[in-house]
Amino acid sequence: MRRHKFTAIVLALVLTFVWCAAALAAPPMTPPGHDKGKNTQHMERFGFSDENEAPWASQYMVRMKARGVFAGYPDGTFKPNASISQGEAVKVAVEAFRGNAEVDLTATVRLPGIQSQMWVAPYLAFAAEKGWIDLEGFQVSRAATRAWFSRLIYMAGKSKIDSDVTNMSSAQLLQALKYKDKQDIADDCLAAVYWLTKKGILTGYGDGLFLPNKPVTRAEAAKILSMMLDELPEETSTVVSGIFRGSLGNVIYLRGSTTSYQMAANVRIFLDGAEVDSISDLLPGDPVRLQLNSEGLVIVVEATAKEEKVEGQIIAIVPGPTASRPWRITVKVGARSESTIDVASNVQVLFANEVKPFSFLMVGDTVEVTVKRDVAIKIVIKDFERQIQGTVIDKTDTTGGKRIKVRVSGTEQWYEVADNVEVVYDEHLFTFGFVRTGDTVELTLSRDVVTSVEVKNTISKQSVTGTILEMTFTHQTILSQLTLKADGASETYAAASTVLIEYDGEEISAEDLEVGDPVKCTLIRSVVVEIEKLEPEEEEDDE
Question: With contact defined as beta carbons under 8 Å apart, do 329 and 314 qualify?
């Protein structure tokens, strides 16, 4: 009896040891699995109670709260559609861009109305000392406008960004901006608006307006601040970026990292800017950014669906399965492989650097397809170029597009012409209007669309000498038009984009020309291709 009891005890110990050893030997994930279960640790979510009033900005509001930039109101709201005051804007800018610099909470400033809002005084003092704002005329409660807010955050991040606008004049900045109401932007805000627009942080409205004096809402401020911070080097240890490798329960694993990250019970997860219910919506390979709280738990996950490239020749285009995927293409990749891909309804089709409708795509096109989550979001047509030489029979140039009719070996054919077509003659670049019927031309075609026209026949040159009355520039310093006074009459000429300008035998720029300068211009079909700046004639003294 005692022997049987002893044997049972030993057997139990052996089984327990074997089970524990197996459990310890097995890694948690090899590699980490893809947990399809929902996050069961759900409680009051991290963020604000009124995010649904501006759902497009939810990700930015949550991110800014996690970074301690926006705290929200005591009742848990954000008030996303309320305008942000200049005082509030300065505070959040300081919190976002101060880095490791400390704010002297005892600092004060003398401003109208500051007595009732002393909480903002230390932040105003900090920003003024850094040169981000000018306290003269500053009003704490005044609504921050789009132009003013742009300048504030540009100045706040200026020392940490690679800005190429420092040496641009106000005239050059105005020329570069495309907004219809750019003249309404204050001079000291132009550099900020231009740089932020160039980076895609700021955009105008559908009618081409910027509306510089329109108040900025708190939701808009959160988005602009978030996108600006994306341009800066990461300085906080509470933000972790990497490539998602997988998840197990509430633990996230990143590729190439030995550290795992546990999610808080109220974690928020965003994929391509839209909130998702579970970490299972992410796939291995997705770039992610994790925001950690003071306890090291992940409170915000921001993921971008990974993109893949497929290159080959389209062998089929058929209707797709749904309205959001209205088309399906099959691409031949290599000699034996094929890939069938659904196409998103908002797919971008590019050809010769121009956006085209999906209907422009044809079977036989060589393409590079950008695929995200098994759906094509971008298709670039990459067909090889070919040249033909012939005689221009006819041409059209209207708002509906450009076309050219060419006779080649007795056969006449119309060709579509790209909007950005290059016209070349004698090493000078011209617009499509330079081409005339009867010209001998060499056309460069890509997928039967003319991308370049080289005029081959000889064209006589003309010369005119006169005085500059007016000059028009495009793209900052490129001369586009010149008005001359010659023989008592004035005449306006277009200038080739490759116009050669010389003075005393040396090449100079168009900026070296001034109204009143005497010049000798060489023209081809009334287009100025060369300008020689002359010495002014000396006036003779009357005897």
Answer: yes
How does strand 366-372 pair with strand 411-425?
A: unpaired
* Tokens representing residue 112 in the block: 């109208």
Quickly tell me which residue has 């960004």 as its tokens: 161
- Residues in CB range of 363: below 8 A, 6 or more apart: 314, 315, 316, 317
Q: In the beta sheet, which residues pair with residue 506?
A: 503
Q: Please answer whether residues 490 and 496 qualify as being in contact, where contact means their C-beta atoms are separated by less than 8 angstroms.
A: no
Pairing of strands 337-351, 354-356: antiparallel
Compute φ and ψ for 95, nearest 5 degrees: -65, -35
In this structure, what token pair is assigned to residue 281? 């919506």
Angle at CA 408, nearest 5°, toward 404 and 413?
40
Distance between CA atoms of 259 and 138, rounded to whole angstroms? 47
pLDDT per residue as tens, the chain (543 positions): 444 444 444 334 433 433 333 332 333 333 343 444 344 344 467 899 999 999 999 999 999 999 889 999 999 999 999 999 999 999 999 999 988 889 998 888 888 767 767 888 899 999 999 999 988 888 888 999 999 999 999 999 888 777 677 778 888 888 888 898 999 999 999 999 999 998 999 988 878 899 999 999 999 999 999 999 988 876 667 889 999 999 999 999 999 988 999 999 999 999 998 999 899 999 999 999 999 998 999 999 999 999 999 999 999 999 999 999 999 999 999 888 999 999 999 999 998 778 899 998 988 889 999 999 999 999 999 877 789 999 999 999 988 889 999 999 889 999 999 988 999 999 899 999 999 999 999 999 988 889 999 999 999 999 999 999 999 987 556 888 999 999 889 999 999 988 999 999 999 988 889 999 999 999 999 999 999 999 987 655 554
Type of residue found at 253: Y
Question: Which amino acid appears at position 332 of this protein?
Answer: K
For the chain, give me the number of helices (H) and strands (E)?
A: 8, 24
- Residue 205, phi then psi, degrees to nearest 5: -100, 170
Return the biggest CA–CA distance within the chain: 148
**Rounded Cα distance, 403 and 15, in Å:** 84
Q: Beta partners for 463? A: 522
Q: HSE of 532 in the Cβ direction (CA atoms, 13 Å)?
A: 11
Residue bearing tokens 């096109």? 365
The span from the CA of 377 to the CA of 74, in Å, is 42
CA distance 391 to 455: 10
The secondary structure of residue 85, as a DSSP letter, is B
Cα–Cα distance for residue pair 504/533, rounded to 1 Å: 8
- Type of residue found at 524: I
What whole-number distance in Å separates Cα of residue 386 and Cα of residue 445? 5
Which residue has 């006589």 as its token pair? Answer: 460
For the chain, percent helix, then strand, then coil, each to nearest 5? 25, 40, 40
What are the tokens at 40? Answer: 């069961």
